[in-house]
Amino acid sequence: MGVYLPMGPQHPLHPEATLVKLRVEGEHVVDADVDASFVHRGIEKALEHKTYTQGLYLAERICGICNVAHTTCYTTNVESLAGIEAPYRALYLRLAVEELARIHSHLLWLGLFAHTMGFETLFMLAFRDREPVLDLMEEITGGRVTTGYNVIGGVRRDVDPGLVFKIKGVLTQLKERILKYKELFESDPVIQARTRGVGYLSKNEAGELLAVGPVARASAIARDVRIDDPYLTHEEVPFNVIVYDTCDAWGRAMVRLDEILESINMVQYTLDHLPSGEVRVKVPPFFRPPPGEMSSRVEAPRGSLLHYVKSDGSDRPVRYRVRTPTLANLASVVTMLRSRNGKIVHIADVPVIFSSIDPCICCTARVTIFDERGHVLEKPLNELLDMRRGR
Amino acid sequence: MLVKIANWAKARSLWLLFINTGACNACDIEVLAALSPRYDAERFGVLLKGSPRHADVLLVTGPVTRQVKNRLIRIYEQIPHPKFVVAVGTCTASGGVYDNCYNVYEGLDKVLPVNLYIPGCPVRPEAVLDAMKLLREKLARGEIH
Ligand code: SF4
What we know:
- The complex is a heterodimer.
- Chain A is α+β, with helices and mostly antiparallel strands.
- Chain A has a single domain, classed as Cytochrome-c3 Hydrogenase, chain B (Orthogonal Bundle).
- Chain A has 14 helices and ten strands.
- Chain A has a three-stranded antiparallel β-sheet.
- Chain B has a single domain (2-140), classed as Rossmann fold, CATH 3.40.50.12280.
- In chain B, strand 1 (15-20), helix 2 (26-35) and strand 2 (47-48) form a beta-alpha-beta unit.
- Chain B is of the alpha/beta class.
- In chain B, 37% of the residues lie in helices and 17% in strands.
- Chain B starts with a helix and ends in a 5-residue tail after the last helix.
- Chains A and B meet through helix 1, helix 5 and helix 14 of A and helix 2 and helix 3 of B.
């Protein structure tokens, strides 16, 4: 029933190759599906062919936007597997950089979200305000976007008091800008019309579909790995979990804006309470962790991120698994895109709804191979490499 | 003569179509940053376009995945002549960190003819601006058309 309407893989409002398959009746979307397979590269398999030290740089490039979350997760995971303990000061610095990355990711999202609404001025403003944060990133870590800051056994560089002073100054300025944007989202009639009640996901649905990150928190579920399962030094750094109960795209925007403010406070608190000491312990490049399994969770800007590693005692992992937040949220976005329970979804709202979950497809694409009867096959995965050679 | 006039005009209004073929997104956001107020690529006449039919320059980020290859070729074919292809980032040029992944073609030049490579992992916005400048100069000199 209805007409099939594909959006993508190349679409002006999708920064990445994504195919949103819609079934429409007139202007109403009755069914939806998302195909996120276009950018599948096979990173999990490639990680098995790299040593733990080399793998870090590939893990960083699973996703360029949340690369800090990925390296935090990777290093925490491998360090606990190998029994390496990063110095205390390094954990604080990791936290500060992670929160800075969250600020930059949310500002980027704000720009792209404004772009999907057709609000180009806000896109430009958000990108302008993001630049000083990237400058700070560059001064702390050496890289604007892909930072290479977290290494196994600590972090690569230390901060000095002059830099701390500068970071605080820039963040204080940024705070004012964010408060302005909040005001804008609360008062602007156009933004309200485009986002209020759009992309509705009730609390029950979000709970059932296991939404994560800002999507869950905008549906009144206080789910945050930093509270539920603290990993760096989150027990010691005070912050609030932002929860909105509007269950729509507007709520998701407000959650992210409020989170930027929280992150600013967290960075400032961390820098004020930096413990003294080393920032890195030396780890040999070809270290061999004992056989075993380990997993770690991190709250990435888009939600909870899970890394799993299995070792057989050699210097390379036997299996590496990554579960990214967007993968968890795809089920929610498909539900949001369907007209149901008297909530009508219009075609014009589809880009806004889709970008309200902050999709990051490049880290999401995975492959599973089924046989004719629908059983998942594990073995052919090992043959994929031969496939590549035979190409 | 006509070609010369066309090239002169082209050099002043390079319109981009930008497609991610498996990049890690870092290069994508740096390209977007190049279009944003701090770097302001628009002063060179560079504009981002949504449709292949409006574009002159195809900006590709990422090693080409098997899944996206045919779509990429179709998009390339839809761009009206003259058209230029720019490979953004090391992984687009040679596979970079994704060398050894089973699902990628290592390098855009295995799939499409490439006019310009921008190195860097990720590229810096300045490098994107530099590439645009280089493309303009090459066009003005009539080296590519
Ligand atoms: S060149 Fe590097 S940073 Fe750019 S998309 Fe490729 S892997 Fe990512």
